[in-house]
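Tokens for Histidine--tRNA ligase. Go.
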Amino acid sequence: MAQKPSIPKGTRDFNPAEVAKRNYIFDVVKTEFKKFGFQPIETPSFENSDTLMGKYGEEGDRLIFKILNSGDFLKKASLEAYEAKDSLKITSSISEKALRYDLTVPFARYVVQHQNEIDFPFKRYQIQPVWRADRPQKGRFREFFQCDADVVGSKSLWQEVEFVQLYDAVFSNLKLEGVTIKINNRKVLSGFAEVIGEKDKLIDFTVALDKLDKIGEEGVKKEMLQKGISESAIEKIQPIFSLQGNFAEKIAGIKEILSASETGMEGIKELEFVEKAIQEMPLKTAKLDLDVTLARGLNYYTGAIFEVSAPENINMGSIGGGGRYDDLTGIFGLKDMSGVGISFGLDRIYLVLEELGLFPIAVTQNTKALFINFGDKEALYALKAVNRLRAENVTAELFPDAAKMKKQMNYANKREIPFVILAGGEEIQAEKFTLKNMKSGEQQKVDFAELVKALD
């Protein structure tokens, strides 16, 4: 007996209606990207392993899908690592390529490789799938699309302001009101590590802090202790766990903690710049909020950090994120190239729009009219009309077989095609068509011009 086919965990098939809804999101996002002056690029689905490894921190590296070398990959494997069952060492000898984990590091590689062809500052957008060997759960998949917009070659904080506006524009046009754009600054986090005397443990500190919404305050403190951060050090930043109020009140609270840190105060200054600019240009439907525990756990952020959360009544992880990365291209040999970028979590956005019923009905409507097939003579007459309708930008099709009327009508109902057109001998002789509204059941005889008008 043939084995039942399946797909890997964390991946999905998409039916026509789902694809139509996803394309709707893509179209809205692309439209805003273009309005803001971003240009499209694409990069390969897999990169050389050394391009990706070491760029996402220890946790990120573990989630990168490695691709086995072609042919007899064990021939070049490290025998010593194999016998020692050292998976990390043996991986490098049997795998030279890996599926991309995100679009930011490949973009940095692209900028360095094509630097002589690029006019800086360079604004690019990219919508492509990425892969992560994560544990599948609601809103978290192993294969998913990312949608990134980045600017490289400018240190101006006006870029951060524009990205806040871009988030607001996209979600407003998707009718997804009430999202929160959380902002923090890596310099603020560095300042925290500095004032508690744990500067050398910045990565351990931020990775733990970033898990606050998942494991809670006690869980974060426990992980920090496990990483060697002392209890006395943790006590010094205790106020950040209960920081409340509006943007200005939160800023005032962290100024007290960071007053002795030059780096931390610089981060505060940058946050204030963005917030004051947004006050002058109020957002349409989104809210900008300061979250000093926001770290995102990635090594390459050096300034602003963004994360977008769904409206409060929706139980979903972040639906967007990003930040400033002054040193990212430096890892590929191009120094002093500052960049900042954001990403949209398209799959999670889809789930939120679905849950809230925000997809327009017209999104999933494809064919506007189905011509009933009564036989070859009638089919030819119908297909000529179909071609003329398509020339008028009306989506129409002919049922391919001269099947029973009931079967053809059921097909139209299942496809949710709003109109059915009958063209038998009587209609052909009169050069007319019988147009049936599948919702109301109303029928009328029309000529072609009237048909176009009715279907427009």
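The longest strand covers residues 122-131.
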